Amino acid sequence: MPVYKDEKRNTWYFKTRYEDIYGRSRQKLKRGFLKKSQAKLAEAEFLACIKRRFTDNATIDEVFEHNISFKKYKDKTIRRRTNEYKKHIQPFFGHMKLKDVQVQQVLDFKSYLEKHFESLNSARTVYSNFKVLINHSVKFFNLKDNPTLMVEPIKRVKAKKII
Question: Which helix (H) or strand (E) covers residue 32, if one does?
């Protein structure tokens, strides 16, 4: 576990090679540690994270693509989920890394859906598709904390009959 002294900046850094979850060889370099011990600790945490096969580069977009290609959905379901994802989920979470999704962001997303849709059942469908992505990342990307578990689901509403 080597760490190096940056003489120019008078700080410490670590540089290590690893394989990501797709088997590609990667290199991680992190600079700016004031003490050698801080750099060693950061490298150890990073390597422990890699051993659990959790990639800190995986985004919600990558999870969505993996979910669509991994599961055997019908073409109609793929079109519907892709449209819902691009229109509602991607603007909120598409660029975010898995580990950065917080409970407050999920609450904000839920309230956005409840206000945006006239039908709560449609909002519930989009929200459940978001939960499918998070659950998929727990299963396949080893996401440790599921932020959707602490948020109440959108309540089911019975449709009114028009006579």
Answer: strand 25-33
Distance CA 5, CA 123 (A): 53
Q: Which two tokens stand for residue 31?
A: 């600079």
* CATH architecture of the region 60-150: Orthogonal Bundle (1.10)
How does pLDDT run across 39-82, given as a tens digit for each residue? 999 998 888 777 766 565 688 998 899 899 888 889 999 999 99
Q: In sequence order, what DSSP letters do the residues of 71-130 get, joined into one string?
A: S---HHHHHHHHHHIIIIIHHHHTTSBGGG--HHHHHHHHHHHHHH-SSHHHHHHHHHHH
**Model pTM?**
0.67
Q: Phi then psi for 64, rounded to 5 degrees?
A: -60, -50
**Of residues 20, 23, 3, 22, the one with CA closest to residue 12:** 3
Q: Which residues contact 6 (CB under 8 A, 6 or more apart)?
A: 12, 13, 31
Domain boundaries, the chain: 3-51, 60-150
Secondary structure class of 156 (helix, strand, coil): coil
Q: Which residues of 25-56 are buried (b: 16+ CB within 10 A; e: fewer)?
A: eeebeeeebeeeeebbebbeebeebbeeebbe
For 53, left (φ over 0), alpha (ψ -120 to 50), or beta? left
